[in-house]
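chain below, 84 aa
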Amino acid sequence: TLQQNHINYSGGCAPEPSKPSNDGVGVVTITADVLRVRTGPGTNYGIVKNVYQGERYQSWGCKDGWYNVGGDQWVSGGYVKFEK
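prediction:
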């Protein structure tokens, strides 16, 4: 028989500094009151806009614990709920 092991990360997206991950394709729901959308996967990137608690966005992948929500728009995995 096959045994499946599942590893959960707090942000739902395992950090992979060397390459973008194919994981993270699904939907993210914003859990913070207000969350900044950044131009890249990190707080050192510029702010695009704010999104708000309860809003849902298509996620196209994740990198370094951040979800890509279209083009150059990224949200931190620590402030969203991810669903496949």
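Residues 4-10 have pLDDT under 50 and may be disordered. The chain has no helices and seven strands.
thats it, cya
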